[in-house]
Amino acid sequence: MKKALLSTLAVATCVLSQGAFAHTGVEVNTLLEGSGNVYNAMTVTHGCATNANGEGSPLTPANLNVLASSTVFPNGANPVVNIVNADGSDGAQIDLTTVIQGTVGGAFTNLSPSPIFPGMFPFEKVVMDSLGNQRGVHAWGNPNNTPFFPGTHAVGLEPFRMANVQFVRDAPGAINCATALKVRFAAAEWCQKGKTGIGTGTNADIWIGHMTTKFNDVYAMPYNATAAAAGSFYWPTMTINRDLVNHPLDPSCGAGYAVAIAPNDADINAYLGITKSEVPAGFWPNN
Known about the structure:
By secondary structure, this protein is mainly beta. The chain has helices spanning 225-229, 265-271, and strands at 12-15, 25-26, 30-32, 38-44, 68-72, 80-84, 90-93, 123-128, 134-140, 154-162, 178-184, 186-190, 204-207, 237-241, 257-262. The longest helix is centred in the last third of the chain and has 7 residues, at 265-271.
C-alpha cells in the first residue's frame, strides 16, 4: 500500500462551553463532501470511571484524571467497511472503492497523524506501521505523572487534519447509493498505571464499538455488559454527508444508505495501547 496522505494531529487543551460530560468523540462530527482539507479534533471530556452502573449514574465514583491518551485512525490496508442498517447496526460489508474517490488499495488514506507541539501532554509519539504509514498517536504525561484535569467545562482536544473527500460518481452499471461515510476512530484514555484498576474500569476508558481479544475489559468499554448485550455500541465518529444537491442519488437507490469505516481488530490491538517503552510502568493491557 502506498503511504497515506499526510495530515496533522496534535494534542491541545481548550476550554469550551460544554455543560455535561460525554463520551470521547469528534468535535465537528458532521461535514459535507467537498469541504476541502479540514481541521477537526478528537475530544477528551472526562476521566475514567467504571461503567458498571452506566455513565452519569450517581452510584458511579468520581472520575479519575487522565494520564495518557491514544487514537487510531481507520487508514490501514484492511479497514472494516459496512453498510449501516436502518436501525443503526452494521450490515453487509462493502468495497470502499465503490463509495469514495481516491482510495488506495481499498484503504481510506485521508487520515494520518503528525503531532504539533506543545500539546495536552509533554510526550507524543506518532504510531507507525511496518510500511511507514502513520496510523495514530500516543500522548502521555511527564515522569512526575502530571495528569490532564478534565474538570467541568474543560475539554482536551486532539486535533487532526483530513484530506478532501468526494463520493464516487455514478457510471453505467455502477451506481453509488451511499448517502454518507461514517468515519469511526478507536480512542482510549488511561487514568491508572501498571496493574492498578484492571477489571474495574477505573484504569481506562476504551472507546471502540466492541471488545477485542486484547482490549477485553467490559468495565472500560463505552457500555456495560447488559447494554452491550442489548445491542448498544459506540465509536467516536465523524460523518461525511454526500452532497445530494449536486450529486443526487439514482432513483434506483431509493433512500440509499450510510457506510461506516473503522479500524479492524488487529490494528486496534497493535496500535491503540501505550507500551512500556513509552511509559515504563505501562498501561493496561501493555503492562
